[in-house]
Amino acid sequence: MPKKTIHILSIESSCDDTSAAILENKKVLSNVVSSQKIHADYGGVVPELASRAHQQNIVPVVDQALKKAGIDKKELNAIAFTQGPGLMGSLLVGTSFAKSLAIALQVPLMAINHMQAHVLAHFIEDEHQNSPPFPFLCLTISGGHTQILKVSSYDTFEILGETIDDAVGEAFDKTAKLLGLPYPGGPLIDKYAREGNPLAYNFSEPKTANPLDFSFSGLKTAILYFLQKEQKKDSAFIKNNLKDICASVQRTIVNILMDKLKKASQLSGIRHVAIAGGVSANSEIRSTLKGMESSLGWTTYIPKFEYTTDNAAMIGIVGYFKYLNQDFDLTDTAASSRLNINA
């Protein structure tokens, strides 16, 4: 830990959560998240509504983060913000606010890659999680991304496999929509699956040319056709079998993820394995990964729940490492809706 105490304000606004955090070196002093409930009425995130909500939320969220941390804005050493990837309108709100505050306070500005932040959330100093050694594998799973990464340092990421179509989070949410569950449906599938029979129904696992790549588009279609076929026989099929359907779908998705992760470990020889991203909050994914410690000789790293979904603490930890390297950005740095993890 450096001799100097570093206080970083970090801002996350990539999608529909407005978040601000204060980090003291690697320790989180506050991590405030304001979620937008309005999107549930539309079955998904509406970009224009999201950006408007960010404009309303960002000042009170930042103010609350400072007050919870007991830090005055004059004590800040730097400001970090999400540059991308994400919804452009949402990103622009956080980017503009961060730039303006950095100029006003005359402190350095750091643009952060959202996907790097999900991975490096493992390095937040917290008694409830451990940090993996380099190199390690990280399965990064969210509503917009599904990747297996080889992480060799705080800023060196190699994509070993990724989805060729839909992200795993989208597969969960679209399946939930087919089942008539409200948005966001992924957590509800996890909830009902705990009480269902995971072997009740079988769904084929899509094949890909690269054995480490993922494909979920075909699985979603297979689930749709299965439900349509069964509902012709029994209009109340979903209602009467909801828990078993959820358990079977979840088992299939978890099997796909873990089979790819096992291949990546075998090919790379790396046995330190982590998960990251919003979908890593799924209870079945967590328990299955943990079980692989004994069966495969892995050491696994599972993030604290509050660091899995979009949050500013994970942005702050990347900012901390950038600060140590004096890797600052200019105030004309632009937000980017599409940003590669190595950008």
What this model shows, in words?
- The chain has 343 residues and is an alpha/beta fold.
- The protein folds into two domains: 7-122 and 308-324, 2-Layer Sandwich (Nucleotidyltransferase, domain 5), CATH 3.30.420.40; 132-302, ATPase, nucleotide binding domain (Nucleotidyltransferase, domain 5, 2-Layer Sandwich).
- It is built from nine helices and ten strands.
- Strands 3-2-1-4-5 form a five-stranded mixed sheet, with helices on both faces. It has a five-stranded mixed sheet with strand order 8-7-6-9-10, sandwiched between helices.
- Strand 6 (136-141) and strand 7 form a beta hairpin.
- Helix 3 crosses helix 9 (312-324) and helix 5 packs across helix 7.
- The relative contact order is 0.18.
Number of helices: 9
Compressed to H and E, one letter per element, the order equals: EEEHEHEHEEEHHHHEHEH
Assigned CATH class of the largest domain: Alpha Beta
- What share of the residues lie within helices? 40-55%
- Given the C-alpha coordinates, what overall shape results? globular
Q: What is the residue-mean pLDDT, rounded to a whole number?
A: 94
> What is the CATH topology classification name of the largest domain?
Nucleotidyltransferase, domain 5
CATH architecture of the largest domain: 2-Layer Sandwich
Strand order of the largest sheet: 3-2-1-4-5
The total count of strands amounts to: 10
Global structural class? alpha/beta
CATH superfamily of the largest domain: ATPase, nucleotide binding domain
Radius of gyration: 20 Å
Q: CA-to-CA gap between the ends?
A: 26 Å
